[in-house]
Recover the amino acids of this structure.
């Protein structure tokens, strides 16, 4: 019986100092590729979130995980900057205040603006309503469960598709907006 192969546990700052042999690296790469190819993004997100919420998780494990993600370019300096940024911003789409560290993929939500009815009821079909914000004819069930827009908050006017009903400029909404509105990027 062969003994278990032991590998040093990487510590922050040691990523470049330790090199694994080619066989170990290629096996590790194959296992990771297999896992990523057989796991949904949502499952991976959920499993990492659950693991990071575990009170028994050691801080060194978290630091090693972060260091590995930084080492392969997934976590960048902008994530560190966002976590330490205490500036309250104004979203140019939904006009809500937010801090970048709290900005998520579903932080900014814009409801549909509905007009009843879109067309007369047809026997055997669900009644439709028109979303005048985007011109879609939706069933009442769909219209009440979906949003016109859901995404990240923004301070960039280029990231906002304004319309005349539910996505309006700060001037149209009568709010002060950002003191320093970013006109490109963000």
């Amino acid at each position: 019986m062969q003994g278990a192969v032991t590998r040093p546990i990487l510590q922050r700052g040691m990523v470049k100092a330790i090199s694994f042999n080619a066989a170990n690296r290629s096996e590790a790469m194959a296992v990771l590729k297999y896992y990523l190819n057989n796991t949904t993004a949502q499952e991976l997100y959920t499993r990492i979130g659950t693991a990071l919420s575990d009170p028994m998780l050691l801080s060194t494990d978290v630091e090693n995980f972060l260091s590995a993600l930084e080492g392969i370019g997934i976590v960048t300096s902008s994530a560190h900057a966002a976590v330490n940024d205490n500036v309250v911003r104004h979203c140019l789409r939904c006009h809500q205040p937010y801090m970048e560290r709290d900005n998520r993929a579903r932080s900014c939500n814009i409801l549909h603006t509905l007009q009843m009815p879109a067309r007369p009821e047809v026997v055997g079909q669900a009644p439709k309503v028109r979303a005048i914000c985007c011109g879609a004819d939706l069933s009442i069930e769909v219209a009440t469960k979906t949003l016109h827009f859901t995404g990240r908050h923004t301070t960039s006017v280029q990231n906002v598709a304004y319309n005349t009903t539910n996505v309006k400029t700060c001037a149209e909404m009568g709010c002060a907006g950002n003191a320093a509105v970013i006109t490109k990027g963000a």
Notes: The first strand starts at residue 88 and ends at 90. Strands lie at 88-90, 97-99, 108-110, 114-115, 128-131, 136-139, 149-151.
